[in-house]
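Q: Could you fold this chain for me?
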Amino acid sequence: MPESWYNAGAVSVQALNSGDGYFQVTASDVNTRQVFGMGWGSPNPYYGFIDYTLSMEAGTLCIYEWGTPRGCFGSYQPGDWLTIAVQNGQVVYMQNNTIIYRSSVAPHYPLYADTSLYTPGGTINNAVIAY
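A: Sure. Below is the predicted structure, expressed as structure tokens.
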């Protein structure tokens, strides 16, 4: 199977319906490309349908909101905790509990955990939804 953002994805059954909460994963490798985020829970695996997205792009962390790039924010290593959280009505992106970006776009509930895998064999590891 060739690489494509339409390869695979998954959406959680649980959702953040209001208030504060987060979706967190552990980075597994720096050789594949995959994204995770929070959004309305589209069954389409394309990352552009995920509202707030942290992209693991073969060693580089990039942020997209509704498919629009917000920038790349350095590298990540296997074992890094990557988090997208709603805190006091604002979406924040974190690496190892350090904020790397604050969104200017207010969250629209409900927010489901959502993923998109570009590289065949790519994984999302140790996913946690908390609220």
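A (continued): The chain has a mean pLDDT of 94.
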